[in-house]
Amino acid sequence: MAASYKPKFWRPGTEAPGTALNEERNNKKDDSTAVIYNPYISMSIQQQRQRLPVFKHRNHILYLLETHQTIVIVGETGCGKSTQIPQYLAEAGWTDSGYVVGVTQPRRVAAITVAQRVAEERGAVLGHEVGYSIRFDDCTDKDATRIKFLTDGYLVREMMEDPLLSKYSVIMLDEAHERTLYTDIAIGLLKKILKKRKDLRVIVASATLDAEAFQNFFNDNDTKDKSKDTAVILTVEGRTFPVDIFYTESPVPNYLRSTVETIIKIHKSNEEGDILAFLTGQDEVDQALQMVIDYARSNKNEKLMKMKALPMYGTLPADEQMKVFERTPPGTRKIVLATNIAETSITVNGIGYVIDSGFVKMRAYDANTGMEGLVIVPVSQASANQRSGRAGRNRSGKTYRLYTEADFDKLSQMTVPEMQRANLSSVILQLKSLGIDNVLRFTFPSPPSSKAMIRGLELLYALGGIDDSAKLTQPLGVRMAEFPLDPMFAKMLLVSGDFGCSEEILTITAMLQVQNIFFTPRNQKIQAEKMKRRFSVMEGDHLTLLNVYEAFQKYGKNSRWCHEHYLNYKGLVRASSIRKQLEKLLKKFKIKLVSSEGDADVICRCIVAGFFANAARLHATGSYRTIRDDKELDIHPTSVMYAEKWPKYVVFYEVLQTNKDYMRDVTEIDPTWLYELAPHYYQYGTENEIAAKRAKVGD
Question: What single DSSP character describes residue 300?
């Protein structure tokens, strides 16, 4: 726990500590946090920059960058490392001669918002000197951009086009503690690039990071001569504003209800400061949002500040996400209910209070069954400290943890790297496209399990992306690697021309990248469901999405029409943009752009050609079971197939794990298509016939 944290204890349902009443009663000797004010309001941007703790380390950072290839920077949340270090590098000449300073972020919204802040500080137009690049959205100028924010995944894709990253002088991997799939790939590849490019510099930065592990990874561990070390550690101490942390006296029975109760208590007892509450997923965010709104409506006559409650999660449309950064009118308190998307890098001005539920929804992969899904698990200590840091960005703050201090001490120190809990087929595909044939010997910061690697290789082989020697096939495997998509989507798109339905498959793929196409207002759920049924078709969710997009195009991409039909207008516009970019790739590979002219079977067969590994059959128990591994699954309630007579065989896009394992985006199939399109992946026949086949293979 950081030294500046001041732990206290409290009980949910009672007056929250640190409130105005408690401050007056208990903190008479220290009024530094009793009166909340923001000195930045009256400062120029230059003065604000100089007040940040990282400023006094400016010359030290630049010196170490001259003398070492890699710097591992550990700085408290709010010290200014994300926004200031890229500017220090530009001011010191690292962007001269046309070079670019690249700064990676684990999330798209972080890349956008940090780029906006840096552009504002430099008085530049976003997309000119300072820009950002994320999947399907490039806001840069190849001639003018000198500070470029991008996601880890986008950096890896740039390595495919330029393996030595020749246009970059410095790469800064920000928020590296999140250890996303592409963060680890980028770190492993950068270690190789540094051996070829002695002029390249790498900065690994985070507020909560196992610094020595990263230092040892980049250094030559075969020698004990420290003078030959290429990586050093720099610690940036201090934060702009202090944060007090409060724990519960005993575990809470329901963290969702306790979160809402704590929001209400803070709202009743404190005069100023916005609230940020962390929950696990969209469903919980929507539930808590409704509870807060219901409270506000039922207590209109209370003499309290107005409340403006806003959601924040990854699948929320971009314009809705950006609403949390807008200023609220005087006399209004902003309440942001968010997933871990708000945990790092982004700064929501005015946040004075953070409520940490102690849980997070993470993607997990079971190498034994080949199933990947979302599971709810306790946060790590590193994530908990990141969350508390959101309260001290531009004012003194307080964090309420809905668990005891003893429980905090039991949490794992760091989050399990995604590399050790993810499907590795896309990782293997991209590494092979970069010329790394023996992926088993690739230097990962945290090596994945051998089972996960075997599963990834097996799926790529089944998709036709690699051959018997585990090399990329020509041209299918090479082309699959160029798509910024899961290999299953890439295969489906590349064979769509042969099936005669490339136009429809382009649309379905683009729509699945957006999610939440159907919009359900809180008080109009029945009307929204009826409207959704107008687009639904018996074949399933994929063709339903196709219907929605074609109707959207037919009515001229009209926002009013979308509102009347409870559709996400911004999401459909984004799907249209993604479709155009994917269409360019198909044209590049000379894939025929043809339509099936309404033949649903052709489209469904093409979907099976890509997603045959995600096939399930209806079991006598009433649930589904995957054909390959006999994993029990159910259809998600939001699927159009949920209320109908369930089909015997389906393919699905992904699995969501809550109280059950749910299939999302489901389509009915004919089982003979699996035998026809993936005979190498499934074994058919009676038990005796299959046993005979296995015995023959054994001989």
Answer: T
Q: Minimal CA–CA distance to 591: which of 677, 510, 483?
A: 483
d(CA 534, CA 433): 44
Would you say 132 and 82 are in contact if contact means Cβ atoms under 8 Å apart?
no
Report the pLDDT value the prediction gives residue 494, as an integer from 0 to 100. Answer: 96
Which of these ranges, 433-437, 463-467, 605-609, has the smallest mean pLDDT?
433-437
The pTM of this model reads: 0.75
Q: Which two tokens stand for residue 368?
A: 């034994």
Over residues 252-263, the pLDDT tens digits come to 999 999 999 999
Task: Reduce the DSSP state of residue 335 to 3 states and report it.
Answer: strand
* Assigned token pair, 117: 């802040």
Segments forming the whole domain that contains residue 342: 6-35+240-418
Looking at the DSSP bridge assignments, the partners of residue 278 are 338, 356
Tokens of 482: 């160029």
Give me the pLDDT at residue 261, please. 93
Axis crossing angle, helix 425-433 with helix 487-499, rounded to the nearest 10? 80
Domain match, 450 and 403 both: no
Give the DSSP H or E segment for 687. helix 687-698
Strands 624-626 and 615-618: antiparallel
Burial of 659 (0-12, 13-18, 19+ CB in 10 A): exposed
**DSSP conformation letters of 134-202:** ETTEEE--TTT--EEEEEHHHHHHHHHH-TT-TTEEEEEETTGGG--HHHHHHHHHHHHHHHH-TT-EE
Contact 133, 150 (CB under 8 A): yes
Read off the tokens for 578.
Answer: 């993604």
Q: How many Å apart are CA 499 and CA 363, to the nearest integer?
A: 33
657 vs 15, residue with greater confidence: 657
Q: Please name the residues in contact with 322: beta carbons below 8 A apart, sequence gap of 6 or more.
A: none
Instruction: Determine, yes or no, domain membership for 456.
Output: yes
- Report the CATH number at residue 281: 3.40.50.300
The string of pLDDT tens digits covering residues 228-240 is 567 888 888 766 6
Per-residue pLDDT of 48-75, as tens digits, reads 788 888 888 999 999 999 999 999 998 8
596 in a domain, yes or no?
A: yes
Is 517 inside a domain boundary? no
Cα dist from 224 to 220, 221, 229, whole Å: 9, 7, 9
In this structure, what is the dihedral angle of CA atoms 278, 271, 319, 550, given to the nearest 10 degrees? 70
Burial class (CB in 10 A: 0-12, 13-18, 19+), 361: buried
Q: Find the largest Cα–Cα distance for the chain.
A: 84
Total domains in the fold of the chain: 4
Are 285 and 220 part of one and the same domain?
no
